[in-house]
Specification:
583 residues; alpha/beta; five-stranded parallel sheet; five-stranded mixed sheet; Rossmann fold; single chain; 47% helix; 22 helices
């Protein structure tokens, strides 16, 4: 698919999985045109892929061009005057709106020229004259330097949708920062803490509903509870399922050129529990001599991430902890640590306030304890129980071990290296139970084969063209492997109701692109498989406007009756050679 709004994930191919979430939000977005979709808030901690999901959703809807106009805005994490914020919000919408109607993506990246003069100039140039009076009107209101300018900016997407009989999806990333970093005065002295409440009416309109996100779950929950009660459906972004997490691991391995053993990849899934933030941190870790081909190498990187000051996992969690402790420690700096440590140790059950007071021998009132627990909850490092009398440590063993390594020695003479020993013991336990992690997951056998083929196409085939050509049958006489522009799986997520996947898509500029199906299973590749794959491959060729391609199938167990003849008839290549999945 074409990328219109630049995605911060980097290469578009690095976006992994989230098939369930994308399907849900695309269906929800389709229903906006029926005016039945209610505004949604996504609650998930930092670096779990919210922004990547929202940016990809924007690009899919923009590419669809079927009557729904996407608008994406991220609230920055720094103090801003409400008037300056309103101007930026309004002009961001104007430029994205123009980009959608003109199909010119350059209007999405006018960050240096995002002003009223440029907006008016482009509106005139693109014959969108109806925008001119709105831009001029907003510019006049902005001269007042008061909150009225925000009221105009906030309601403008809904208003233009109504006036033009259009439908708009408003995506606001990091919504919770509105109440933390937007100020009523130019001197930045009076925070607009109740700013979320300005959306109380706006969020109810079905012609321009909101999809908001928050990395600080507690802060966003406060806004939703205090100012926007009943206005938003609440959704969470969970960890990735095993197949998507494994795909992410191998994708990062290939693109960052960090080899990963297949057994270690599964172990990495176990210890991260499919958390994309943790997987990414392990690959980008500054741990010296990073090695993901052995258990010892993985554990060394994990230890660095949990205990070293430069660890990405540690620095992320310490920011959450720092905010919470700053709010509640007061004259007793160890109090919050003791409370959190006790909840971590008992994270598999709910703990009452009474139990905390008794077990920790706290000399504080019930109300004071409640205030401290609420601060920990709103800063996302503990969870509420089934009632206000109970709390629980978050169910995240990496956070629990990180916190123990950082603070437990101050409280109960804890030795941080014990953490890694616990992981070693867990690894050995899993090995005994499953004999080998890889063997325990036979359903991923084909997935590993895909990664091996992709690896060979990226790094070896074009360097050893004659060898790899000898592994293929029925290739064109002028075929050569290329140094491909991109090589990865292909997922068609633009057509939300008829999506399909291709195991391998190697895109070339002037030479043959490769579109491949990889099967590493006991049964042979039969004629129905061949017909289904040919249909998907032709669909890809049409959607991506591929001028020159070879469609191929690798089946380690061979092919059924009539399949080679079908391949010959349809000019498809095929192979049974196991060297494709051996490096």
């Amino acid at each position: 698919m074409q990328i219109y709004l630049k995605e911060r994930i980097g290469k578009p191919e690095l976006f992994t999985g989230r098939k369930k979430e994308l399907s849900f939000f695309l269906h929800w977005a389709d229903n906006i045109k029926e005016e039945v979709s209610k505004s949604i808030a996504i609650l998930s901690r930092r670096k779990t892929g919210k922004s990547a999901l929202l940016e990809r959703l924007f690009n899919i809807i923009f590419a669809q061009n079927n009557g729904l106009i996407p608008f994406y805005y991220q609230v920055d994490e720094h103090p801003q005057w409400i008037v300056d914020f309103a101007k930026d919000f309004f002009l961001s919408f104007i430029f994205q709106y123009i980009a959608f109607h003109t199909r010119k993506k350059e209007y999405l990246s006018l960050s240096l020229g995002k002003n009223f003069e440029t907006a008016l100039e482009i509106a005139k140039k693109e014959n969108l004259d109806f925008l001119i009076k709105h831009i001029e009107n907003f510019e006049r209101i902005a001269l007042k330097d008061d909150i009225s300018v925000w009221n105009f900016a906030r309601d403008f997407p809904r208003m233009i949708a109504e006036l033009r009989n259009e439908y708009i999806l408003q995506i606001i990333d990091e919504f919770q920062y509105m109440g933390k970093y937007i100020y009523r005065d130019k001197e930045i002295t009076r925070p607009f803490t109740e700013m979320a409440g300005t959306y109380y009416r706006t969020a109810e309109y079905k012609n321009a509903p909101l999809l908001i996100s928050g990395s600080w779950i507690g802060w966003l929950l406060q806004d939703l509870g205090n100012y926007l009660h009943g206005r938003f459906i609440r959704e969470t972004l969970d960890n990735m399922p095993e197949n998507e997490a494994i795909e992410m691991i191998f994708k990062y391995s290939l693109y960052l050129e960090i080899p990963v053993d297949s057994e270690i990849a599964e172990w990495m899934f176990y210890i991260t529990e499919g958390n994309p933030s943790y997987i990414s941190a392990l690959f980008y870790s500054r741990c010296p001599d990073k090695d993901f081909n052995t258990q010892q190498g993985l554990l060394k990187t994990l230890e660095f991430e949990l205990t070293h000051q430069k660890g990405l996992i540690k620095s992320t969690w310490m920011e959450y902890i720092g905010y919470a402790f700053a709010e509640i420690n007061g004259d007793n700096p160890q109090l919050a640590r003791s409370i959190l440590l006790y909840l971590c140790k008992n994270k598999h059950r709910q703990v009452s306030k009474k139990e905390l007071i008794e077990q920790l021998q706290l000399k504080i009132s019930d109300a004071d304890l409640e205030k401290r627990l609420e601060a920990l909850f709103y800063n996302d490092i503990i969870e509420r129980g089934t009632s206000n009398f109970y709390y629980q440590g978050i169910k995240d063993h990496i956070f629990e071990k990180l916190f123990r390594a950082e603070y437990a020695d101050e409280i109960d003479n804890f030795d941080p290296p014990v953490i890694i020993n616990e992981y070693r013991e867990l690894y050995e336990k899993l090995n005994k139970e499953h004999k080998s992690l890889k063997g325990a997951h036979a359903n991923l056998k084909g997935r590993y084969a895909e990664y091996d083929v992709i690896d060979n196409l990226r790094f070896r085939a074009y360097k050893k063209n004659d060898l790899f050509c000898s592994l293929m049958r029925n290739i064109p006489a002028d075929f050569r492997f290329a140094d491909y522009k991109s090589v990865w799986k292909y997922t068609d997520s633009v057509e939300s109701k008829r999506s399909f996947e291709i195991d391998v898509f190697a895109r070339a500029d002037d030479e043959y692109s490769l579109i491949g199906e990889v099967k590493n299973r006991i049964i042979k590749f039969d004629l129905s498989d061949a017909k289904e794959f040919l249909d998907k491959a032709n669909n890809l060729i049409e959607k991506e406007d591929i001028q020159k391609a070879v469609i191929f199938v690798l089946s380690i167990s061979g092919f059924g009756k009539g399949v080679p003849e079908f391949f010959e008839e349809n000019k498809m290549a095929w192979s049974e050679d196991e060297r494709w999945i051996n490096k």
